[in-house]
User: What shape does this take?
Amino acid sequence: MKYVSYPFNEIKRLSFYLATEEFLARNYPEDEYFFMWQVNPTVIFGRNQLIENEINMKYVKENNIEYYRRKSGGGCVYADFSNIMFSFITPNFNKDFVFSTYLNKVADLLKDLGLNAYVSGRNDILIDGLKVSGNAFYQVNSRSIVHGTMLYNTDLSVMVKAITPDNEKLVSKGIDSVRKRVTNIKDHLPITIEDFKNHIKNNLCDQEIVLTPKDIEKISKIEETYLKDEFIYGKNPNYTLKKKSKTEAGIIEISLELKNNIVKRLNMLGDYFLIGDEDEFLNNFKNITFTKADFAQVLKDVNIKDYIYNLTAEEFLQILF
Assistant: This one.
């Protein structure tokens, strides 16, 4: 695996590092690549989440916390300079293999430091039962990208205040709750953040490449797509029917615009992981009658698992009907 370095030491916006992932996926078709990055206080929400549902915007703006949307699914997370972000790019397109192989590699590196670390659920790494890393997955140009957090010494109280809706009781309960579920590396090891990063880099990668100034120009161009208002805020049209449920794939909310019980528009929100083209999937249900039988008929010809990770046709139908 090759480690990717920048030709500078300055701290960039989170959107720049997300753009780096895309650049590598689009321009480096072979080999596996890995890099680590840190940002100033920032909130990152998933591709299919509504910003107003995820962020305490008043607190975020008052405390100069940046916020961005990423192109992977999953939930909203907070990062500061004491949180290390990992990015892994591979030509392997098997999402189960990619997730399992990569996350277990990282967990093994934590075990090498004497930590009781293991992979849990669909995308987390735990230490002694407490979450230290959450990860998300998406695909670009037939390449798989996994990126995630590694909590080194993040201020958990700021984390909860930034990503919890603006309600004092919810914030207070959230801080108590997150302290019981989440942990920092520094709570378990007398190791500096730089020594920790070197341990990960030296044991995960056997080569290193340095991006060129021309590469940086191309990355900056990709970054522009992350900074557009229509991408950050998304579209939130009115719908006549909304259905929401928690599944193995994550929290899923489906909104439909119906006319004479005919589906005119669908939208999906939540912290699930996309594999295929979401619009392509949802377009299969346009202009059909909103009945379980008609939706089930569509799903006989459309494999939902080609589009949404870990979601079954039965669960999709159960959400709606």
About this structure: The mean pLDDT is 90. The first helix runs from residue 14 to 27. The chain has two domains: 2-233, 241-320.
